[in-house]
Amino acid sequence: MAASNTSKVIEFMMFVGKLKQVQRTGWVLRGLKNVESVADHMYRMGIMALFLDQSKTAGINKDKCIKMALVHDMAECIVGDITPWCGISKEEKHQQERKSLEDLLYTGASLSAIQHGMDAMDKLCKLAGGQTGQEILELWEEYSQQITAESKAVKDLDKFDMLLQAFEYEKLLQSPKKLQTFFDNNKGSFNSAEVNNWMEELQNLRTLHPHDGSDGSLPNNGYVKKLQE
After folding, report:
1. Per the record, which residues fall in region Disordered (predicted)?
2. Which among 59, 126, 128, 141 counts the fewest CB atoms within 10 Å?
3. How far is CA 174 from its chain centroid?
4. pTM of the full predicted structure?
């Protein structure tokens, strides 16, 4: 790999690394502090995709779902985590994210140029370059369009991870139903039979253990304090 290409790949990796610091906006808007990052969210989605049962979803490509889970929010390293409560339409969000991703995957756009007003997903893919940049952009576009079985499966994982995280915060804070709005807004919205089964079990857990945050599977009270600071 030529030195110039190598430097672009390193710059691309540094952009993606910013996702470790981008907090998930939905939790911040609910008054929680020191919440999960976008990188945290995408990582667990990738792990969840390993559990998708291909026999239950005709024609699904599990490996593609894993890759899609890992890139679906990549543009947020530039545009931030835009939610329905941010006052930006889905169309505008898509346009901003695409411009950023394309620039990062296909060109050597400078850090200062991207951070000072160049929109978002058309930019990220230019730094990665070549077949890798093209694959990332195609995966992101496929997820955004929500037409294929894989894109719909990954959208289910996106929503389920959010609801699982909501339950974890409710347990940590010992505040049952504190984040009920997230569950209400996504009721009956899952396509996958498998994720629907997970959702049923999660609802059972919320009913049976609304106050239990001490089973050893979650961080200790020091982390609870950080959520409230």
Report:
1. 207-229
2. 59
3. 25
4. 0.78
